[in-house]
Amino acid sequence: ILRGGSRPNYDKENVQHASEQLEKNALDAKMMVDCSHANSNKDYRRQSDVCENVAGQIADGERRIIGLMIESHLVEGRQDVVDGKDLTYGQSITDACINWDTTDVLLRKLADAVKSRREVLSQQASA
């Protein structure tokens, strides 16, 4: 799982580097990308940017990315549990999350990216 580290690692160059390292160690070059944590610089709102970048890679034919992790909930952000205070239904009490509407948009973009990847790979196979 590419989740970033001292810097984000979801871009095309980092996917290539991770693939080379996996192959060098006789491992299958398949990976997931975490759109949160260090890849979003710990800002849940940047998950969309990460996801859209990865969707672009997938649409261009990238086959080594097999999944994404997105911090998502019904209501964006996060909340603290405080005695005597009602919780907001559908909002995380752990990590900050994007909301459902944003998640829906991203999932549709990813679905379109997979369709595009299938077309790209089909054209390559026909050539």
TrEMBL record:
<dbReference type="Pfam" id="PF00793">
    <property type="entry name" value="DAHP_synth_1"/>
</dbReference>
<protein>
    <recommendedName>
        <fullName>3-deoxy-7-phosphoheptulonate synthase</fullName>
        <ecNumber>2.5.1.54</ecNumber>
    </recommendedName>
</protein>
<keyword id="KW-0028">Amino-acid biosynthesis</keyword>
<comment type="pathway">
    <text>Metabolic intermediate biosynthesis; chorismate biosynthesis; chorismate from D-erythrose 4-phosphate and phosphoenolpyruvate: step 1/7.</text>
</comment>
<dbReference type="InterPro" id="IPR006219">
    <property type="entry name" value="DAHP_synth_1"/>
</dbReference>
<feature type="domain" description="DAHP synthetase I/KDSA">
    <location>
        <begin position="1"/>
        <end position="106"/>
    </location>
</feature>
<dbReference type="InterPro" id="IPR006218">
    <property type="entry name" value="DAHP1/KDSA"/>
</dbReference>
<keyword id="KW-0057">Aromatic amino acid biosynthesis</keyword>
<comment type="similarity">
    <text>Belongs to the class-I DAHP synthase family.</text>
</comment>
<keyword id="KW-0808">Transferase</keyword>
<dbReference type="InterPro" id="IPR013785">
    <property type="entry name" value="Aldolase_TIM"/>
</dbReference>
<comment type="function">
    <text>Stereospecific condensation of phosphoenolpyruvate (PEP) and D-erythrose-4-phosphate (E4P) giving rise to 3-deoxy-D-arabino-heptulosonate-7-phosphate (DAHP).</text>
</comment>
